């Protein structure tokens, strides 16, 4: 289902101080390059440091499985379409310390907006760390746009 800012109650007026912009994941043009990188990555036949614990690095067998999954199983177009079912935006946030410095730093942040189906609900902000993704909250069964 396509979404619009007005549908979820966000104004994209010209004077928007956060530069709120709708966001769509589109890495389709990068997939051939990623596949070429995977195809051209030659893993060693045997582990260089056998018996070393996994906390020292990725085990060769696991890495080979990942490479195979990316090349033979993973369907990025389907994954991308599922992620784009969420209403996504970017906003530019200025540093809260701008008043103390001559340099005004800003950051562009990406977020997913899910409006409750219930009236009179309190807003909830779910944050993830890096590396991470809003997909970490998928078990909560958040609504899509």
Automatic annotation (TrEMBL):
InterPro entries tied to this protein: AB_hydrolase_fold, Epoxide_hydro_N
The name this protein goes by in its record: Epoxide hydrolase
Annotated Epoxide hydrolase N-terminal domain residues: 21-137
PANTHER family: EPOXIDE HYDROLASE, EPOXIDE HYDROLASE 1-RELATED
GO biological process: epoxide metabolic process
Domain of life: Eukaryota
Pfam families reported for this sequence: EHN
Molecular functions (GO terms): epoxide hydrolase activity
Presence of the UniProt keyword Hydrolase in the record: yes
Keyword field contains Transport: no
Family: Belongs to the peptidase S33 family.
Alphabetic keyword roster: Aromatic hydrocarbons catabolism, Hydrolase
């Amino acid at each position: 289902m396509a979404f619009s800012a007005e549908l979820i109650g966000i104004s994209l007026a010209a004077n928007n101080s956060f530069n709120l912009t709708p966001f769509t994941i589109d890495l389709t043009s990068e997939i051939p390059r990623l596949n070429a990188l995977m195809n051209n990555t030659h893993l060693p036949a045997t582990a260089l440091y056998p018996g070393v614990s996994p906390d020292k690095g990725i085990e060769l067998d696991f890495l080979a499985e990942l490479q195979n999954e990316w090349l033979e199983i993973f369907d990025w177009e389907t994954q991308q379409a599922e992620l784009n079912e969420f209403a996504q935006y970017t906003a530019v946030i200025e540093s809260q310390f701008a008043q103390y410095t001559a340099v005004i730093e800003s950051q562009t942040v990406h977020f997913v907006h899910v409006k409750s189906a219930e009236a009179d609900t309190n807003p909830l902000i779910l944050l993830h760390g890096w590396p991470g993704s809003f997909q970490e909250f998928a078990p909560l069964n958040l609504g899509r746009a």
